[in-house]
Specification:
Length: 415
């Protein structure tokens, strides 16, 4: 057993499936439904296309990306849209810090300190997300997701794009809603290639979604939201995109909803090369899953956990549920952390694969699934002692691994 597991219970867990052990239900572990067989390839190697090639990643090493830097419970790594080579790290305890994206960087600067505003009493509470407006270099807008004493807050701040000085008085609440339990807050937010802000929201917490929130279209919990922060309509600080699935509905469904039936989405990302949205959803007792998110679809929780039945007494027709494109059981890991499709230059054998990991087991995988017709191939890249809370991508497309213990790592192909 890895040394991490010997002291894991001494460290607050931000991403575990449920915050109280006595809430866990016992259920048998099941095998992942998606085979890890290889993608078929042409006999003529020279005629292989990107989608037909056989996926055989090289061996990789996990190495420190910035050996001189240390963070406090880091949860996210990101950059702005300009080319000044500046990286930002979100700390659960309330600070966002930035630094020059160089391996020998020795210092960080506090971008914003929200520690006086946030509530970190629960292990899955705190400062959870950051997204820079696509036009940050012009308007200075950035958005954060944090938990306060009253629940989840999505807020906008304004910074000077040149000096990165934040004007604290510019805080503007975009969206807020209470949290019935301390866990399953989701927290990730990101702008899509369409310019809209996407927000991952957990099912509200507890064990097994006791309120049935994820299937309730009158609630925001257990959903991926999509809003237009450049508009304000009907007294709200944002608009509703015209093609959101429940725009202008007459059933009082929340129009912010883009997709639903999620348990605790922990990191999603956009593959702009394939026009695809990847989302990792943390499981309950048995299954961790990866979904391809599409407008208006129902991803099953809490009627199903992955491809397994969980609470099938619901009124939803099972044929209306979208299964994950990949899943793994708790023999492999117990809290999935979503990542990114890799398009960097330093690890060419990983190009086009989705890199993700597990917070509990520390494993890192590459999933090769170029399209719906191709059966996915999942390859373990590394088995680490890291508590993988997030992944990030540098401005030149290289992968960053965020370790909740305080360090940032990357992968390097071995010669």
């Amino acid at each position: 057993m890895k040394k991490m597991k010997k002291w894991l219970l001494l460290v607050p867990l931000v991403l575990v499936a449920c915050s109280r052990v006595d809430e866990m239900q016992e259920s048998p572990q099941t095998e992942a439904s998606v085979s890890q067989s290889e993608v078929s390839s042409s006999e003529n190697a020279e005629s292989k296309t990107t989608t037909e090639k056989e996926f055989e990643p090289a061996s990789v090493e996990v190495v420190e990306a910035y050996p001189n830097l240390m963070f406090e419970e880091p949860l996210y790594y990101t950059t702005t849209n300009d080319q000044d080579n500046t990286a930002f790290v979100v700390e659960r305890t309330g600070k966002i810090r930035y630094f020059e994206n160089k391996m020998d960087t020795k210092e960080t600067i506090t971008f914003i300190d929200l520690s006086s505003k946030i509530n970190t009493e629960g292990n899955e509470m705190g400062l959870l997300g950051l997204a820079f407006h696509p036009d940050f270099d012009q308007n200075g807008y950035f958005f954060v997701n944090y938990t306060s004493n009253d629940g989840t807050v999505i807020a906008r701040f304004e910074a000077d794009p040149e000096t990165l000085e934040v004007k604290m008085e510019t805080e503007s609440t975009v969206l807020t809603f209470p949290q019935p339990y301390a866990n399953h807050n989701g927290g990730h937010l990101a702008f899509g290639p369409d310019g809209y802000l996407y927000i991952g929201v957990g099912d509200g917490g507890g064990s097994g979604d006791p309120e049935g929130n994820a299937q309730d279209l009158n609630e925001l919990y257990g959903k991926l939201l999509r809003i237009d922060v450049d508009q304000s309509n009907n007294g709200q600080a944002y608009g509703i995109p015209a093609d959101n699935p429940f725009t202008a509905n007459t059933d009082d469904y929340r129009e912010e909803i883009y997709a639903y039936g999620l348990r605790n989405p922990w990191r999603f990302s956009f593959d702009t090369e394939k026009d695809r949205l990847w989302l990792a959803d943390v499981g309950e007792n048995t299954i961790e899953e990866i979904d391809w998110i599409e407008n208006g679809l129902n991803y099953g929780w809490n009627l199903k956990e992955g491809t397994n039945e969980f609470n099938p007494a619901g009124t939803v027709n099972p044929t209306e549920l979208r299964d994950p494109i990949f899943e793994y059981d708790h023999a492999e890991g117990q809290s999935i952390t979503g990542g990114y499709v890799y398009y960097g230059k330093e690890n060419p054998s990983l190009t086009g694969s989705y890199i993700y990991g597990d917070f509990i087991s520390g494993k890192i995988w590459a999933l090769w699934k170029p399209d719906e017709a191709t059966e996915g191939k999942n390859v373990e890249l590394a088995d680490t002692d890291l508590m993988i809370s997030s992944f990030g991508v540098t401005q030149d497309g290289e992968l960053i691994i965020v370790d909740f213990n305080g360090k940032l790592y990357t992968v390097e192909e071995k010669d």
